Queue: 4 jobs
Job 1
Amino acid sequence: MSTPTLDRTAETSVPLLDVLATRWSPRAFDATAPIDEAKLMAALEAARWSPSARNTQPWRFIVARRGTDLHAAVDSALMGFNREWAGQAQVLIAAFAEEADAEGAPHPWAQYDLGQAVAHLSVQAHADGLFVHQMGGIDRAALEALPGVSENLRAVTVIALGALGDTAALSEPLQQREAAPRARRPLADSIIAEA
């Protein structure tokens, strides 16, 4: 299948690494392509090596490949229009923050560190030609009830990961979102103070 590629390169205010400027979050995934296991493992390895406070590594992942019961379970925990497109991704990754250690000591930085791990995963995946889309519209309780999820883990996001698909397979509203110009507020609006 030939998938038309949109140029989604960000118009940055200063030069960035190409892998950062060209990274974007599509909704069109190729529902027929198999996952490249080596690239998936590289993305997960990048997450493993991301920084964390006191090296606590307070992230955990459920990696659900399309066609498995686990993928169906994670897909069923998606909410809203995420249910319309994300199940086509080769992999759905449920990401959890370990909010306390085994002795109950809190990890107040857990979600921050999980965010760094997912950022590293996203950049590595994109560098390898895979695409990632993170979703906050999830049923956290359903994800936390999946087998193997301990009580100190909090579901934070689900990540769709895989090969880019054809936007024509999406509904009209989602096609419009895919083609809409990329936008961010000006850099200065994100800086509270600077000296």
Note: The helical segments are 18-21, 37-48, 69-76, 82-85, 110-127, 140-144, 172-179.
Job 2
Amino acid sequence: MSQSAAATLRQRLADPSKIVVGAGVFDGLTARIALTEGFDCLYMTGAGTTISRLGLPDLGVATLNDMRDNAAMIAGLDPSVPLIADADTGFGGSLMVKRTVTEYIRAGVAALHLEDQPTTKRCGHLRNKQIVPEEEYLGRIRAAVNARAAVEGDIVLIARTDALQSLGYEAAVSRLKNAIALGADVAFLEGVSSAEEARSVCESLSPTPVLFNAVPGGLSPAWSVAEAQELGFRIVIFPGLALGAVYEGVRRACKRLKETGTQDGSVNPHDLFNVVGLKEAVAFDMAAGGGLYDKGV
């Protein structure tokens, strides 16, 4: 039996000399491209999921079903590659957190993160975020840990706090320490603002791995993978990687079509379909005795 994605991620996190890099994707095409380019960990962005599936901003409007279905599809493309997925606030009280963790495990997700904003949350790199009382937040973490223990399977639990901007560094790190004491595997201090803060949180929470959220133009410096590792982070995610590229590329293509009546023909259908498994699909059909593709495609 092959090793689970969660076990693979845990194995990588056990090596303090390595850093896990999560390429930010939000749908099947962007995930396939990242896999083709050789990334060995993917990150499903909640903002990207909300934008791509609903056409709405990341303001707490995506439901568990929206997020789980997208995560299940991405995780299933290559189950050997760990997927870290946003789980927002857990989508409700303790019973909803239990359902969220259970559904993510069944979907094959390797890790999820839970935050301490209210259910009507917003993207972590927007301003004026609200924060729930610490006991409510820790109740979510406790429910997640208990849910994981109750279901067959495993998932890496990442405790995220957005309290840095409103409550300050000490209060935010205290929340993470308490979440770790309850059984969280990784800490995520959203909106780290300086190298000094970064080094401090990584040292304070050691040996627990700490995650860095790389969002250019957001609340944190735009550190590279090497810089994040030097500061002590063990995971770095790039949630806007595909989202920003798609926004720029599609906007440019639409502008060209609108202004010139032509489109860029640099990508042909075969190239696109091969990225998402055309050759493998044809080979599978032929091995099963099918004749649909005997003359090629």
Note: The chain has two domains: 5-247, 267-297.
Job 3
Amino acid sequence: MLDLKILTQALGDLEEDLVMEMLKEFTDTSPSEAEALEAVAACQAGMTIVGELFEQGEYFVGDLIFAGELLTEAINALKPALGGGASVVIGTILLGTVHGDLHDIGKNIFKSMSEAAGFEVIDLGIDVEVDTFVKKAQEIKPQIIGMSGVLTLAINSMKDTVEALKAANVSAKVIIGGNPVTKESSVFVGADAFTTNAAEGVKICQGLV
């Protein structure tokens, strides 16, 4: 039986071997998708610990990067239980961290989970210019455009991008995510949906297609 609290703490402590060992034992039991989502949530809670320790000066940028890589590794280990075997593409998501923001941990988690759910995800990376979003959206015609940001200034970049997409007659639904995102900021930006939780974001996207 997977102890979610121990898993959370292990990820928070950056104990890669313990995290991966626990997840291997867990996936060997053929868990349900709901149980796998609980494991994902426990891993995400571990990232909260990492963030707090970084703010307190206990962890450094290198630790943050390692934590993001560990989280991606953990999600990949859980993919089979999350329906990662999906061969039918249910929709395309164009994804990126908006102009002026260099954070990608949350974006990468969302990408991994979306792919596990059957989406094709085109990731533009970080600090994505407005024009880049517009041109790529016109080229691939995604059903959904996901914008991520951690800094407060990201909200204005999101708004600029949404306005440019609408001006270019791009009809994709827009979901925004990240720490500063609220219902109010979502309305300000002009997005169709918002989330601060990757698992919830995937469910929203499933509803949008």
Note: The mean pLDDT is 91.
Job 4
Amino acid sequence: MNILISVVICTHNRSQYLAKAIQSLLNQQFPLENYEIIIIDNCSTDQTKEVVEQLAGKNLRYIYEPTLGLSYARNTGWKNAQGKYVAYLDDDAIACPLWLSTILEVFETVQPQPGCVGGKAEPIWEAPRPNWLSDELVTGLTVIDWSPTPQVLPDLSRQWLVGANIAFPKAVLEKLGGFIDGLDRSGKHLLSGGDVFLEKQIAQAGYSCYYHPQMAVSHHIQQSRLDKKWFIRRYFWQGVSDAVVQLIEESPSRSKRLFLAILRTINLLLVPSQITSFLYNSDDKNQFTERCFTLIKLGHIAGLLGLAHKPS
């Protein structure tokens, strides 16, 4: 077998979705002998292993990762990959039939070769989309559609690739050390941003991050996430995640963290509309969006004051 692409699915107690994700990979318009599927079982207690065993084939492998946390599972995946390229698909996502072909086309034809490539992630709504859910907040559900044409992403703070649908040359992952351990989801903790942080490292190393809309996946949006309380937690923890990234990049002293938190608090108080949006529960999508963006700032402050810890 000439393995060109290793596809990694990291999973934690999502056996009800996992079979559909794997089947979408088995249905690729791509030679079976040129790719492998690696399932990283991250401390699941459901029927995950049985689901994999039912679909077992020559190009499907199962690995149990005992340390809970998405970044640990992702790193276990690429370190065990045999392919030249490593692609990540979420356990509740479905890859389009040309997914692997598009990944290979980009890495083999775009010059200079990108450091990562990703594509469109479309929602599979498991309940009606709420009226208060704006397009700006939908990206928090791992839904993106940046452009109908392939392109290099020039500003990762405005447009980024999602970990549910992303691929790298394995050599780039080896060079940069992969994902930062501890900087991402772990059980019920909603830390996030490990994928975007790696994308920024890739850009700093001189590579491009490339978007191709034909590298498309569909992504289940569970009913439990279409709730204001989930979004409030999600965006507060986005702020905490931003604080973790700041600790990684700057390693500020305890006094500097306090100073930065005070400065951010003052800046927040100087914009009354942000405080108003936080205090009032409104179904207006613009007001709820501003409330969530205010929660990012509050989460960042809370992170600087002690809720965030630099990964060891």
Note: The chain has a mean pLDDT of 93.
